[in-house]
Amino acid sequence: MTETPRQGLAIAVFYGLIALIILINPLFHLDGYVPGAPTTDYYHFHWNYWWIRHALATGLNVYETNYVMAPYTSSLAYHTLTPFWYPVWALLEPAFGTVAAMTGVQLCIMTLNGWTTFLLLRREGVPRPLALLGGAIFQTLPIMLNSLFWTTLNIMSWFWLPGLMLLWGRVAQGKRTLIHAVIFGLALWGMLLTDIQYPLLLAPVLIPYGIKTVIESQHKARLLAAGIGGVTLALALTWAVGLLPAILSYDRAGLAPTPADRAVEIPFPLGYITRTLFLE
Fold first, then answer.
1. CB atoms inside a 10 Å sphere around CB 109
2. Exposure winner among 23, 104, 205, 242, fewest CB in 10 A?
C-alpha cells in the first residue's frame, strides 16, 4: 500500500502538527527558555554545533578540541557530536538564534519519527487509520519525550529504524538497484553521523530483516552485493569526514563506562502515561 505524493505530504503535515503540539511550550518561550532543568544537557548540542562551525571556519579538526579541558586536547570520537543535524541548525541559527534553530531541528526529528513509521506500516499492509495511530504512538514514545526534555538530538532520531527498513525494501524490490543501494548507503552514513551507537541499537531488527529479504529474493547475489556496497559506501564516507579515523585512533585504555543504574529511568507503568506532551 502506498500513498500519492499529495497524500504523503498531508501525512507529513499531520505528524508535523503533532510535533508542534508537543513543542508548544518551547515554541512560545524561545526568548531565553529551553526544555528541561539545569541538570539536563540543554547546552550540549548548542555547543556541539557552535564548535563544528568554528572548526570548519578555522580549518581545525572537528573531532579534536582543546576547548573542553584547556590546554589539553580532547578527542570527540565518542562524543555525541551528531553532525548530521548541523546543516539544519546552521541554516536557521543566523536568522533566529540557536534556541529557535535547535527547536527547528527537534520539530524535524519528531515529524520524521512519525512519518517514516507510518510509511513503513503502510508498506507492510497496515490500514491507513492504524498506520496513522502507529506513527503517532512511535512519535510520542517516552524515549522521544525524554530526549526532548534533555535536548538529546541523537537519542530521539529513531526515524532511522523505519527509514532504513523502507530504503532496504526498495533495494530488495530489484528495480534500479544501484540507485537505491547508493541511497541506502547514504542513509547508513547519516545514521552514523547521528550517533555511532545506532548500529548496535538497530542491528537486532535490521539484520534479521535483511536476511529475510535476501532469503525471499530471486536475485540473492545482486541483493547481497547491493547491501555490501551500501555498507562500504557508508564506511568510506565516514572515513572521509574524519569520524572513522578518530574512532580507530582513540585510546580506549582509560574509558570508564557509565554504570547501568545511572541510566535515565522511565517508571513502569506510570512513566508511560504521566509524561505530559506539553514539555516543561
1. 23
2. 205
Residue 279's pLDDT is 45
Contact indicator for 196, 78 with CB cutoff of 8 Å = yes
Q: Which three cell numbers stand for residue 32?
A: 531565553
Q: Which H or E element spans position 173?
A: none
> Which helix (H) or strand (E) segment is 147 a member of?
helix 142-150
Q: Which three cell numbers stand for residue 216?
A: 525471499
State mean pLDDT over 185-208.
Answer: 94
- Cis peptide preceding 129, ω within 30 of 0: no
H or E segment at 64? strand 64-69
C-alpha cell read off for 1? 500500500
Kindly report the pTM of this predicted structure: 0.90
Region of 242 (left: φ > 0; alpha: ψ -120 to 50; beta: rest) is: left
Q: Which residues contact 88 (CB under 8 A, 6 or more apart)?
A: 101, 104, 105, 108
Q: Which residues of 13-27 are buried (b: 16+ CB within 10 A; e: fewer)?
A: ebbbebbeebbeebb
Cell 563506562, located at residue: 257
Contact 154, 82 (CB under 8 A): yes
